[in-house]
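Model the whole thing, not chain by chain.
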Amino acid sequence: MMAAATELKVQGEIRYDEPMSRHTSWRVGGPAETFFIPASVDDLAAFLQELDDDIPLFWHGVGSNLLVRDGGLRGVVISATKMSKHLERVGQYRVRAGAGVACTTLSRQCIRWQLGPSEFFAGIPGTVGGALAMNAGAHGGETWERVQSVRTIDRSGGLHERTPDDFSIAYRSVKGPANEWFLEAILRFDPDVMPSMDDMKAMLERRRSTQPLGLPSCGSVFRNPPGDYSARLIEAAGLKGHRIGGAEVSPKHANFIINRKDATATDIEALIEHVQQTVLDAHGTSLKHEVRIVGEARS
Ligand SMILES: Cc1cc2nc3c(=O)[nH]c(=O)nc-3n(C[C@H](O)[C@H](O)[C@H](O)COP(=O)(O)OP(=O)(O)OC[C@H]3O[C@@H](n4cnc5c(N)ncnc54)[C@H](O)[C@@H]3O)c2cc1C
């Protein structure tokens, strides 16, 4: 017998009408109808087994690549931030990392273990789950270059072991079996690469000097088009500092949109569309956004 989310008993925490602005790095977004923080994989599997098939499910890491519209998200948002926090060395060059582990934690621990290349993970302010979903990357490193296998969970709570062959992987794009989400990954590092805490700190310092890191953003909004940089195209189109409502194209880094003050998701989405149109008119290049835009417009 299937059930609505409101009828289900869980060990973790369920919140209703949870403002997604609390769970996105842009600090915007309407409410999630149901926000579930499972206590464990078993708790999540039991919840999924009972959940009505027609209830929309959305997976959330820490929202560092998400624009949730002001009308919010229908159905259930699953947050992996409490479960799947394990991080352990499982071989000379291999690590098992839960989806809820912060990429910065992964980076620091791998450097302590002398497993590299791993410094680049420190530049990604999301979770391992989000990095797997996005094929997040920085400074020449990409998440899926390190993946040996992943464990996923499906809509009925079933668990699967998958390898990269089950996925189509590209720049900031991962396509795999429908209705499966990441629980953990086995990551493999290179025997002859010695990572360094100093290199990682220097990389973070470079980012601080070139990116508006103190202000709410989602990092780079647009993918780089082949052979060019979105930031260059946006700056050359004269858009640095352009504002709509509380949203602004960062004067420091043109591929960042920052929430200056009380921006809404509507402001940010309107600015994204304005940038796309202006760059298309100026350079004939169609920019694709890297950030995931989800949810309902405010009615
Ligand atoms: C200041 C700043 C700098 C950034 N720099 C970089 C950078 O250098 N390189 C880079 O690649 N990104 C960068 N980002 C973007 C972001 O950090 C990454 O995309 C990150 O991987 C998102 O992880 P998250 O946990 O926040 O995912 P979320 O934003 O919560 O979710 C992103 C997507 O992943 C899906 N997802 C999340 N968890 C899972 C899961 N367990 N299973 C299946 N799907 C899941 C969500 O449904 C959503 O579609 C930056 C962001 C900020 C704010």
